[in-house]
Amino acid sequence: MSPESLIDIFREGLSVIVLIVSAIILPGLFVGLIVAVFQAATSINEQTLSFLPRLLMTLFSLMFLGHWLVQTMMDFFYTMVDMIPQVIG
């Protein structure tokens, strides 16, 4: 196994991780930003007001994107399993 192939596998794994995590985190980040602007405009400093919408948005994004996330991970796993003979031999 050459170092270049190991780097390619590592790069592909990192890109899958970044894609999956950003699909989960970014919607909650945008909702948190909107709530923070609302809190700054109205001078409401309630902690649950900032936490609950982000939590709900993260759960909704997991619920709606769950099938795609699992399919992406499965595709990566199948690619890795198919590459076993190339890596070993």
TrEMBL record:
Pfam families associated with the record: Bac_export_3
The name this protein goes by in its record: Flagellar biosynthetic protein FliQ
Membrane-protein topology: Multi-pass membrane protein
Stored InterPro entries: Bac_export_3, FliQ
Signal sequence range: none
Membrane-crossing residue ranges in chain numbering: 12-39, 51-70
Compartment(s) where it occurs, according to its Swiss-Prot or TrEMBL record: Cell membrane; Bacterial flagellum basal body
Keyword annotations from UniProtKB, A to Z: Bacterial flagellum, Cell membrane, Cell projection, Cilium, Flagellum, Membrane, Transmembrane, Transmembrane helix
Family the entry assigns: Belongs to the FliQ/MopD/SpaQ family.
Role description: Role in flagellar biosynthesis.
